[in-house]
Amino acid sequence: MLRLEDQSIRLCDRMPRRSFMQIGGLAMGGMSLPQILKAQEQSGKRSSHKAVIMIFLAGGPPHQDMFDLKPDAPDEVRGEFKPIDTNVPGIQISELMPRVAGMMDKFSIIRSLVGAEGRHDSFECCTGHHFRSSQPQGGWPSLGSALSRVAGPVHPTVPPYIDLSHTMAHDPWNIKGPGYLGLTHAPFRPDGRVMENMTLNSINKGRLSERTRLLEDLDRFRRTSETGLTDGTYDGYTQQALDVLSSSRLVEALDLEREDPKVRARYGKDDPKVLSYKLDMGYQAIMSRFLLARRAVEAGARCVTCSFAHFDWHGNNFGHARKVVPLLDQGVAALVQDLHDRGMDKDVTVLVWGEFGRTPKINKNAGRDHWPRVHAALMAGGGMQTGQVIGSTNRLGEEAVDRPVHMQEVFATLYHNLGIDVASTTIEDNNGRPQYLIDQQTPIRELV
To answer: From what superkingdom does this record's organism come (predicted)?
Structure first.
């Protein structure tokens, strides 16, 4: 095993980068990288590249102002926005979302989501389980981690699970990881510090010297490994491990300078200050994340998660919505159209949702408070039947009155689109007990 000793550079998970990069003994749950690659192959990699992109709207987006407007409700419920027609007759959504409205045939709206636990937490949107419910030792894994364990990587040099979110100040909102599956199946987070060390930007004499030593060490280890591969000391998984360390595939996927400027322009410009509040808390509306998600899937990611903005609007609900929702509209519409243009719409499922909805009644601060009884989600791609609305709420948007859809049904649909049978697929927990991925195992029939 080669251990790269040098200055400690902290990653987003506080693990020193040089300690992390141990070739042959990569510090991921105590397994070496060749062992991980071998285990992933034994778990059965799939030939087709099915994937999920989940956009998490932290704080609970107001369903009454986006997907389920109530124009005939009293003033204290109706709010300030008007519904507009979409390109699907009979379906209307908020005037703040004209781009999605113009391609509604490529989307489906679920207006009757139930089962929210009511916590300001990404846990249920990431795992499908309630945080307060009984959990296996180590906790439930997120969908991306479970997918990493069950399906393995599409490409040996690209992590199956990538999280593009900023770190948010309210820690429960941060995207969840592997639970009992361990670091082997944790999401890769290409934050600024990680990407800085994956590329050769801002090179100075010290960094160049450091990289030169690194390359020399890698060259020595590669020569030794190649001898081992020749004489049978090492197996093919060691070669794959070397490929992971030397490949530029992921770096290139996350380099937007390689994207067609016309395509990039459709997604909009990044302006971290557009929300004008809580800028230092990680609640930013960065448009390029939608494009990065598509590029990461193209490179080989099976699950990409991304948080967007901040929706906990107990005050000034309508002022915040006028800034945030049109940006979400542009980013989501560009992503879904891009997937269709590239012939990826049958394989890649897009899900946009938050942890719960908002109160029908507007409070004294012109805001909406927490409302776990019902909320909404937007879905696209995955070969699903789109151009429809599933479920409905009562005239005030208080509760589902037609076709309640449990949040676990959404997960069952995601797994179905990925080609995974949740009725028969289990993963052993830390005590060796097989655990089903979710409890409610029937996908949404209207979609599949």
So the answer is: Bacteria
Is-contact 137 367, C-beta < 8 A? no
Helix boundaries (H) for 152-305: 192-198, 205-231, 236-246, 249-253, 261-266, 288-299
Residue 190 has pLDDT above 90, yes or no: no
Backbone angles phi, psi at 56, to 5 degrees: -100, 120
What is the model's pTM?
A: 0.81
List pLDDT tens digits, range 17-46: 333 344 343 334 444 545 555 655 555 444
Residue at 428 is within a domain:
yes
In 3D, which of 7, 148, 125 has the Cα closest to residue 60?
125
Whether 52 contacts 351, CB under 8 Å: yes
Tokens of 259: 């994207």
- 153, pLDDT greater than 70: yes
Q: Give the C-alpha separation, 190 to 100, whole Å.
A: 29
Domain that holds residue 419: 51-195+269-436
Per the domain annotation, does 207 fall within a domain?
no
Predicted confidence (pLDDT) per residue in 279-300, tens digit: 678 888 999 999 999 999 999 9
d(CA 203, CA 210): 10
Burial of residue 7 (number of CB atoms within 10 Å: 0-12, 13-18, 19+): exposed
How many structural domains does the chain have? 1
In terms of DSSP bridges, do strands 303-307 and 161-163 run parallel, antiparallel, or are they unpaired? parallel
Count of all residues that appear for the chain in the document: 448
Q: Find the CATH number of the domain harbouring 412.
A: 3.40.720.10
In a 13 Å sphere around the CA of 179, the CA atoms on its Cβ side amount to 28
Q: Which residues share a beta bridge with 110?
A: 377, 390
pLDDT at residue number 222: 54
Helices (H), 80-191: 98-102, 123-127, 143-151
The answer as to whether 293 is a domain residue is yes
Q: Which two tokens stand for residue 242?
A: 């070397």
Residue 71 lies in a domain: yes
